[in-house]
Write a structure and sequence with these properties.
The complex is a heterodimer. By secondary structure, chain A is α+β, with helices and mostly antiparallel strands. Chain A has nine helices and 26 strands. In chain A, α1 runs parallel beside α2 and α4 packs parallel to α5. Chain A is globular, with a radius of gyration of 20 Å. The radius of gyration of chain B is 30 Å and the shape is globular. Classes of the chains: A alpha+beta, B alpha+beta. The interface between A and B is large, with 38 and 44 residues.
């Protein structure tokens, strides 16, 4: 039986003005409780995030904060946009340490290594998790996960996502205490008296024959089957004419047509973020190794929603009989692309059903982080669910 | 999905690994990156790279809590599972990693999930690729260093650019192979892609893939090749394991390189006569078994192979192995190769029927229920003719040999050339009991000198005979193999003779090849363990050290006696890795038993392979064992084979500070002059002198003589095989100071050693009889 108190609350606001929205969402999450340990803030970058952060901090003075900009928010009551969602963790049964590191200054791997050190500060807790929020536009995010894993090992599961910018793919923001950052990774090491559960699933399946990645450099796929990658990609998928020339149109199209890479027990999905029309290459959110096999992947409402159920069940299953105090969801923006607005509401409603009344918060991401049970680490076009037991 | 996991997944993972190690920037920790990749690729929880006493890279542990000792123990195979915080108990798989001296790579995955055989193969492939990458990086580093030293010398800069360019080209080539595998191209096309890629990228005009014939594991088939004329292809379609560069790569399981083909070990005469100058071959693995080799060759003179080129060939060979890694592919391959072979029935050189034709005619003869006999004829020392008189003479001789064999048998009998200098005769019109007579006629015909252009050549032949009555239902291939076995027995008995096959020969051979195969896997699976037999000191009255003896715990057969497997290890060369392992284990273990000494046996093969000094140095530096606590035991036959070489190596070993013992002294050559020439410290008195010594008589006098020799040369004696207190007393009377034997303890596992020594009773401990004539012993450490 737990002796220490632990609670999780969430709040959301669609008020247009940043200060008001921050105070509103934060106030709901706290619900008058004074012993909050951590605020997790996901907000549209249509807000002035400096003001929003200041107002959240003013509502909960002295409480640690991390957060990031998003491309749509997930709340207990549905999927939203141009809004802010806050999750608060409180009570003496939680221990929290936060950290931030600049990818530009340290490099991806070292930034991951650096922020993961925070987990040592909560080592006294029987259960730990490291929440990472990073800038998906700042290079191969797998390296951040590797850096963090090198610090904590299998002992501390890693979870989180890459900040969004409402699909403009220009600049994302990370929030850390009173700082509004870009090109950074922010982290919260959370210790708890009760377990956490992690669930990961994507719901994409292969279409057509395998292609060999005949040339790639890091996140850039130069050729598939010895042909310029962009040409193969557009031709195989019968992409609409505008996707052949317009960057935005390409990104929108590519959202629902990721690449799949063969892994031991699953397919790793790689989001195609941009096209280089000059070089005829594809730019992904994570490294696509040369020499590997790649498939074009497709999904539909059914497969994506089946994956939603699977991820939630896996996360909750890890808690055993214990009901969750709250669920954090990191859902790829591309899945929202497949589902459309109605489908997304359906998906979030399903997550809320699984939560069984416990608060839900999350956002639509540019890449998801989940490393546990030897499963990969950095994911694309995937739903990652953290159940807080 | 149309591509089986076995084919595409492994090759893909390996290509990705190559791409990864190639992309890691200079200065970064490539081993750490590689371990991370292995952990991710094989979905493991932890991974590590360890040398003997250091964990060089690890993944999966919190950075400040890497359990060094546990990881080292697991990498030695002492721990089969690891308890990993956050993951719980994990099954462990370990592979040798030659990229660092004495290195191992380790992966752990949470139970109950274990690593399957394909994953283990892939893991071994990873280790090999990483080793190669490290070697190439060190070559690059050297190049950079040289460049800096010579003020940005333009040539060096170009060299650096070339090797980076080559690496990219390699990856592109491998991607193409990957593509042909993944798109399920016909197998011959896949193999052709590999062979062609190796040839073009490395720049030799001849390339071929040889695979072991599953029906006749001593023979190789040419599965794919480019750069050879149709005649050459036919001539080299089959060859023997262990012959030619490709055959050596298979028998030795290593990269073989020669830049002087004609003078290389066992060249194939067809290639020498075709003008091949340089060649290299890399083994192709299927799991842990060598199943073939990828061979490159050129007729250009002055061709030498750079490290990068060697690395590339190994990478291609690694890919070939994984491409073959599914049974369907291998089956299809044999079918394809078989089809091609069947198209030709005639030996192009002699015009005689070839092996295929011979086997079919044999089959037909058996079907008509006739009693038949088979002769398998192999010329003695034919290689010498090729080497000394040239291949045109060799070829002419083969034609004449064919003619004489034909002339020695009846018109209905069938003579065929099987390949190389092997001929076969199917005797259908000769009653079986006369087959030996036919063999003798052929032997006599061949013993007459041959006149070839410009020379008279004398050559003999060894013949295996199979007498086959109608009630034997062996296949033609089995009959031919039996004849081959008998021929080998004839060679072993001294050439120039014929031997009739008996089933026991086949059983011997099968048992031996099974033993060989099992031993190979035993090395991989770490079934070989070291046992220690205590050595007691008569002066101190206590145990002062041990002799390390390798033991094989066969999973099915139990403990295999060393006299059964050591000879096999010797002839196959496996004794070298085994010897090294024993040296490492024994020194490491003995260093833990502070103050004790250990002696380790060193075989002729180890002494001959040139690495023994390096291995001893490595063992000492890794274990921290004081050099004078290690004694290397050599048998006298090893030493007298080539006394100059032996003396050179022994003096290098002595410089390391170790002690040298002569084992089994007096049982063989017993030359006093070599004893005086060599830096020997210890003479071991063989147990054959001990049995009966207590009764006096001739045994006692012989033992006394051996001990006297030792004393006159101021050598310490260690007497083996003491079983009774009477024997002990007799040997002590002769002045022996050190003993081992069942009187005290048999060889025991390391874990039982201390218990065994403490159980040695005071009654059996030799009583000091004075300090002996020559020795002072101090603190358990012999000082001479």
């Amino acid at each position: 039986m737990d002796v220490a108190v632990r609670w999780v609350g969430s709040g959301t606001s669609q008020l247009a003005e940043a200060t008001a929205a921050g105070a509103d969402a934060c106030g709901q999450a706290l619900a008058g409780r004074s012993d909050a340990r951590l605020l997790i803030v996901f907000a549209s970058d249509s807000y002035d995030l400096t003001q929003l952060l200041a107002s959240a901090r003013a509502t909960a003075p002295g409480v640690k904060v991390i957060g990031c900009s998003s491309s749509g928010e997930i709340t207990s009551s549905g999927a939203t946009g141009s809004s802010v969602v806050v999750m608060a963790l409180g009570g003496s049964g939680f221990a929290v340490a936060t950290a931030q590191a600049s990818v530009e200054e340290l490099g991806l791997r070292a930034a991951g290594t650096e922020v993961a050190r925070a987990s040592a500060e909560v080592a006294a807790s029987p259960y730990r998790v490291l929440l990472l929020l990073s800038d998906g536009l700042a290079g191969d995010q797998e390296e951040i996960v590797r850096g963090a894993y090198a610090t904590v090992g299998a002992e501390v599961p890693l979870v989180g996502g890459c900040a969004g910018d409402d699909l403009r793919m220009v600049q994302t923001t990370q929030l850390y205490e009173d700082q509004v950052l870009t090109g950074c990774v922010v982290a919260a090491a959370i210790g708890s008296d009760a377990p956490f559960g992690l669930g990961v699933d994507h719901g994409w399946r292969r279409v057509g024959d395998a292609m060999v990645v005949t040339a790639s450099e890091d996140v850039r796929v130069l050729s598939l089957n010895d042909e310029p990658a962009l040409d193969v990609y557009l031709r195989r998928l019968g992409a609409p004419p505008e996707a052949h020339t317009d960057a935005q149109a390409f990104t929108r199209f590519a959202l629902t047509h990721p690449l799949g890479l063969s892994r031991r027990s699953t397919e790793e999905v790689r989001m195609v973020a941009e096209a280089d029309f000059e070089q005829r290459s594809l730019i992904c959110i994570a490294r696509v190794p040369q020499g590997g096999l790649a498939w074009i992947m497709e999904g539909d409402d059914d497969s994506v929603l089946t994956a939603t159920d699977a991820a939630c069940k896996a996360a909750l299953g890890a808690l055993g009989e214990r009901p969750p105090l709250g669920l954090l969801a990191f859902d790829c923006i591309a899945r929202r692309g497949v589902l459309g607005d109605d489908g997304s509401q359906l998906e979030v409603a399903r997550i809320a059903d699984h939560a069984g009344g416990a608060p839900v918060a999350g956002f639509y991401t540019y890449g998801e982080i989940a490393r546990d049970s030897a499963v990969g680490g950095f994911h694309n076009q995937t739903l990652v669910v953290l159940a807080i037991g | 999905m149309t591509v089986p996991k076995a084919t595409s997944w492994s090759t893909q993972q390996l290509t990705e690994m190559l791409a990864l190690v190639a992309a890691v920037p200079a200065g970064a920790d490539v081993v750490q990156r590689a371990v991370e990749h292995m952990v991710e690729s094989l979905e493991a929880d932890v991974g590590a790279a360890a040398s003997a006493d250091q964990v060089l890279a690890s993944v999966g542990y919190s950075a400040d809590a890497v359990p060094r000792d546990e990881l080292l123990a697991a990498s030695y195979g002492e721990l089969k599972t690891l308890d990993v915080p956050g993951a719980g108990p994990c099954s462990v798989v370990v592979v040798a990693f030659d990229g660092i001296p004495g290195g191992n790579l380790l992966l752990g995955r949470r139970l109950p999930d274990d690593f399957d055989s394909e994953e283990r193969s892939l893991f071994r492939g990873f280790a090999r690729v990483l080793t190669l990458a490290l070697q190439a990086r060190s070559a690059l580093h050297d190049e950079r260093t040289r460049r800096a030293a010579s003020e940005a010398d333009a040539l060096h800069r170009q060299g650096l650019l070339d090797s980076l360019g080559e690496r990219q080209a390699l990856l592109e080539r491998l991607s193409r192979i990957q593509r042909s595998i993944s798109t399920r191209r016909p197998l011959n096309e896949v193999l052709h892609t590999i062979v062609e890629g190796a040839s073009e990228l490395i720049g030799d005009e001849i390339a071929g893939l040889r695979l072991v014939d599953p029906d006749d594991p001593q023979m190789l088939m040419l599965a794919s090749c480019i750069g050879l004329s149709p005649e050459m292809r036919e001539r080299t379609r089959r060859s023997r394991v262990g012959e030619g560069i490709g055959g050596l790569a298979i028998s030795q399981g290593a990269l073989i390189v020669t830049e002087d083909y004609a003078n290389a070990e066992l060249p194939l005469e067809a290639f020498t006569s075709d003008g091949v100058r340089s060649s290299m071959a890399a083994p192709v693995y299927h799991g842990s078994e060598v199943v073939g080799s990828l061979v490159l060759a050129t007729r250009r003179s002055g061709r030498s192979y750079s490290d990068t080129e060697r690395e590339m060939l190994l990478a291609f060979a690694e890919h070939t192995g994984l491409a073959l890694n599914d049974a369907r592919t291998v089956a299809a391959l044999h079918q394809a190769v078989g089809d091609a072979t069947r198209q030709a029935r005639q030996d192009p050189l002699t015009g005689l029927p070839n092996r295929t034709d011979f086997l079919e005619k044999l089959k037909a003869a058996r079907a008509s229920a006739r009693q038949v006999s088979l002769l398998f004829i192999d010329l003695d020392d034919f290689k010498l003719v090729n080497d000394t008189l040239g291949h045109p003479v060799g070829d002419a001789l083969l034609c004449l040999v064919g003619d004489r064999i034909v002339g020695s048998v009846r018109g209905d009998d069938l003579v065929a050339r099987l390949g190389g200098d092997e001929f076969a005769v199917l005797l259908t019109s000769t009653p079986p009991h006369e087959a030996e007579g036919a063999a003798e006629r052929i032997r006599q015909a061949l013993s007459q000198p041959f006149r070839v252009p410009g020379h008279h050549v004398s050559i003999g032949a060894s013949t295996g005979v199979v007498l086959c009555s109608g009630d034997v239902d062996n296949s033609p291939e089995e009959l031919l193999r039996d004849a081959d076995v008998a021929m080998y027995r004839a060679k072993a008995l001294g050439k120039g003779r014929s031997i009739v096959f008996t089933p026991s020969m086949r059983i011997d051979l099968q048992a031996r090849s099974r033993l060989e195969r099992d031993l190979r896997s035993a090395i991989e699976e770490q079934e070989l363990v070291v046992h220690y037999q205590p050595v007691v000191d008569a002066v101190l009255g206590r145990v002062v050290g041990s002799e390390a003896l390798v033991r094989w715990e066969h999973p099915e057969l139990g403990l295999v006696p060393p006299q059964e497997f050591i000879p096999v290890a010797e002839t196959t060369g496996m004794i070298v890795p085994i010897g090294r392992q024993v040296l490492m284990d024994a020194t490491r273990q003995t260093a833990l038993w502070t103050g004790l000494t250990v002696s380790v046996n060193v075989s002729a093969r180890q002494l001959g392979d040139g690495l023994v000094v390096e291995h001893v140095r490595e063992a000492l530096s890794r274990s921290g064992l004081p050099p004078d606590h290690l004694t290397l035991e050599l048998t006298e036959s090893v030493l007298v084979d080539d006394i100059d070489i032996a003396a050179g190596i022994l003096s290098e070993l002595k410089q390391l500070g170790v002690r040298i013992a002569i084992d089994d002294f007096g049982t063989g050559y017993s030359s006093l002059s070599y004893l005086a020439q060599l830096p020997v410290d210890v003479l071991k008195v063989d147990k054959q002198f001990v049995s009966g010594v207590e009764r006096g008589g001739i045994e006692a006098r012989l033992a006394g003589a051996v001990v006297a020799i030792a004393h006159s040369l101021q050598l310490t004696t260690v007497t083996e095989g003491i079983e009774t207190t009477a024997q002990l007393a007799a040997m002590q009377r002769l002045g022996c100071t050190h003993f081992q034997g069942y009187l005290w303890a048999p060889p025991v596992p390391a874990s039982d050693f201390l218990a065994a020594t403490s159980a040695i009773s005071a009654q059996t401990m030799p009583r000091p009889r004075g300090a002996g004539p020559l020795r002072v012993v101090h603190g358990g450490r012999p000082v001479t």
